[in-house]
Amino acid sequence: MSPDQFHGSTHKGRPVYLDNQATTPLDPRVLEAMMPFFTEKFGNPHSQNHLYGWEAEEAIEAARGKIAALIGASEKEIIFTSGATESNNLAIKGTARLHKSEAPGAQKNHVVTCVTEHKCVLESCTALEREGITTTYLPVSANGLIDLDQLRGAISEKTILVSIMGVNNEIGVIQPLAEIGTLCREHDVFFHTDAAQAVGKIALDVDTMGVDLMSISGHKFYGPMGVGALYIRRRPRVRLEPMVSGGGQEQGIRTGTLATPLCVGLGEAAEIATREMDTEATRLGKLRDRFLEKLLPRIDNVTINGDMEKRIPGNLNLSFPGVQADTLLAGLKNLALSTGSACASGSPEPSYVLEALGLSNDLSSTSVRVGLGRFTTEQEIDFATETIAAEIDRQRRNTDRRAPAA
After folding, report:
1. Is 274 within 8 Å of 202 (Cβ atoms)?
2. For residues 239 and 90, what is the distance between their CA atoms, to the nearest angstrom?
3. How far is it, in rounded angstroms, from Cα 253 to Cα 83?
4. Kind and range of the H or E run holding 110
């Protein structure tokens, strides 16, 4: 199904959806693949004595292979989870705890991450700090990227793990994963990447990039919510401490009955991405360019936050000085946009990601994230830019009228 065939967000009076970093709509092809496992193929995949269990297990293993193919891994290296938050917790806490306990003499008690990581990564590191494991939080440059020399300087003999996200969820910048992997190999430390925003959007190969652990989320690339995966390297083998006790499923690393329909959906989403990712990236790049070409001539003093070259094509993060982002979004009732991460949307504080780029509180509070996706159309782009430009003009004129005379 092509995007033009999809009856999208402008139909039935619903807002135009431009928040694809928060979540992507389920691809109808993914839903079609999942449906039999909600109905006639309902077996427990861990039931080994009859057809219902066998067909569910077979479907899960096929999905595992599709996910592995998307990132250049083996199906034996894919562990199903509930999503990237669980995968990140399992990768960071599980690796650090196991290797700290195994090497008390060597005092392996250090991890390295970045100040612009997702909250679940930062909070995982905070939890480890309460257990005596120290954390170095790397800064980013004004373009949102880490400095490799600073990373090199942060790694020591005590370092267990480096965790750097592949693509930032707010500003869409792509970190230099292959270079980070090389540094980690040189220093014999594990490399984990939160790839929730990268999988299905940019080419990933765990071997050429030197990645030891990779977190994946289904609903970030047109799969179902509630399912994700963790890639765990087998050669050289990465071992970690499980967080849940139970029946020993998923090699004893993530125990519990697997949700067959969700696993199948994740696999189907991965297979579609493998086929269509390059074409989709080209299309999204053109839509992003169209968005900017139509918006920027209409509005003065707009800032694009984050590097424009090292960036996924479906993301823009824009600051509109003089217009508060929350007020702007309240006026854009026909558009679904956000001010940043959905996981931090309830916080009144300015975006810590934008602050890390050096933006003042005043500027970061005027910033809006635009997330284009598989089903975004040119017509929606044109409608969105016209609507945003008109609302910003209206709010700026109102602000000028309220301003006291000099």
Report:
1. no
2. 11
3. 15
4. strand 110-114
Helix (H) or strand (E) holding 353: helix 352-356
DSSP string, 241-271: --S--SS-TGGGTS-S---HHHHHHHHHHHH
Q: Is the Cβ–Cβ distance between 166 and 194 less than 8 Å?
A: yes
The three-class DSSP label of residue 152 is: helix
- How many whole angstroms separate alpha carbon 209 and alpha carbon 194? 14
Q: Report the pLDDT value the prediction gives residue 4, as an integer from 0 to 100.
A: 42
- Going by their DSSP bridges, the two strands 228-232 and 78-81 should be labelled as antiparallel
Which of 390, 267, 256, 290 has its CA nearest to residue 332? 390
d(CA 155, CA 108): 11
Q: What is the pLDDT of residue 8?
A: 46
DSSP state string for 207-247: TTTT-SEEEEEGGGTTS-TT-EEEEE-BTTBP----S--SS
* DSSP letter assigned to residue 331: H
Say how far apart CA 217 and CA 334 lie, in whole Å.
Answer: 28
Residue 98 and residue 140 in contact, taking contact as beta carbons nearer than 8 Å: no
> Any idea which residues carry the catalytic annotation?
343
- In whole numbers, what is the pLDDT of the chain averaged over residues? 93
C-alpha closest to that of 216 among 84, 342, 312? 84
Query: Do the bridges between strand 315-319 and strand 335-336 make them parallel or antiparallel, or are there none, so unpaired?
Result: unpaired
Cα 311 from Cα 98, distance rounded (Å): 35
Q: Which residue has the tokens 């479907």?
A: 59
Asked whether the bond before 236 is cis by omega within 30 degrees of 0, the reply is: yes
Tokens of 185: 């190999």
Average of per-residue pLDDT across 296-303:
95
Q: Domains of the chain, with CATH numbers?
A: 3-27+278-402 (3.90.1150.10), 28-271 (3.40.640.10)
Q: Convert the pLDDT of each residue in 180-234 to its tens digit.
A: 999 999 999 999 999 999 999 999 999 999 999 999 999 999 999 999 999 999 9
Q: What is the pLDDT of residue 404?
A: 60
DSSP code of residue 301? S
Q: Rounded to an integer, what distance in angstroms lies between the CA atom of residue 261 and that of residue 38?
A: 6
